[in-house]
Amino acid sequence: MIASLNIKKKIKSFNRIITIDGDKSLSIRWVLLASQATGKSKAYNLLMSEDVMAALDSVKRLGIKVKIHQKYCEIYGNGINGFKYKNNLVIDAKNSGTLGRLILGLLVKAPQKIKLIGDKSLSKRDFSRVTIPLQKFGVKFYYKSKNKLPLFILGSKHPKSINYLENKGSAQCKSSVMLAALNASGSTLIKAKKSRNHSELLFKYLKIPIKIKKTKKYDFIKIEQPKKIKSFTYQIPGDISSSSFFIVLTTLSNNSKLLIKNVNINPSRTGVIKILKKMGAKISFTNQKYYRGEKIANILITSSNNLKAINCPSELNSSAIDEFLIIFLVAARAKGTSYFKDLAELNQKESPRLVWGSKILNMMGVKTELTKDSIKIYGQPNLKIKELIKIKNYLKDHRVFMMSTIAALTCGGQWKIYDKDSINTSFPSFLKIIKKIDKNSI
Question: Fewer CB in a 10 Å sphere around the end CB: N or C, the chain?
Fold first, then answer.
């Protein structure tokens, strides 16, 4: 029996204060970098989702000691390339593209073949975008199916530094090469299209030799091989991607107000805020501060009854790439026709999200025009849903489930959303927080 969620009514007006689970991108990066540090590192508010648990399991399989306590997690690192390699080792990235791609960067010295596998969704995604640059370090890869998982990696005894152009705006590809540079002699040079910069900030905080020169479209990154990485403690802030669902829940609800505390508002991640504010959403930051280079704040949202369409600037795409499904929902309720372009990268996610965004809006009675990399959405401010909507067969993409739930709670109608456990990938407490806001809503 596949667990499903049935929603038959809109959420009532609310005024609440909530906190959100730890940032997934930072949680996975903490695990991987702590495994390369020397000694005991500690993380508070580590996201205990399937993706992060897969990261912890992966470093454990590589001989790293991990202890999970009630309020924090400890990792006992053995230094750079301090992994213990066993015969016939298998690393399972589950649903996590971040883990699957980044951990390959740490395995560039693997002395024997290691097999990387993932779930059905991850096994459909292109891994050549990281294996091609990693091959330049001297690493060898073997695929069973072209460019897809499962794959085998065989490292090099003496990885050499490389020059790399990352022109897709993928933080995963950039970060994988950055992690590989920890084991490469000389200077690794990266010219990277703008994308989230958590890895760069962590490298700076950990005093890994890194220099960054920024231009309008690209960052030029130079990394020297460090002698060691010191163990470190990290208090992981709330996740902006997870927060975005509650930002939109409040924006589209009547007479409601919400304060989300202690959220990571790194400028490379706040495209969703910029886009929604351009559309008329009422969002503001309070109590702003910096922690380990990351910008953190409380987010205050109030309902908005006058949302307008947007011709979305594509330069905002990379800083909102994980939030476009929920942005499309706002466009469906805005006055006018919204246009989003240069979004082919969306179809490289857990599911083809550009396609699924269009499909769900069409089920709701909202007209869309879809191409391989763009979507037009004809907004309906007074949208009324009459048909029963069933969401299923979406490769268990957690963001499809959450977007559908917010649509049901704010737009009405009857909904049956399958694969409720998909949220465990990134946001296990998603439904609990909704019940905290309105216990009778689901």
Answer: N
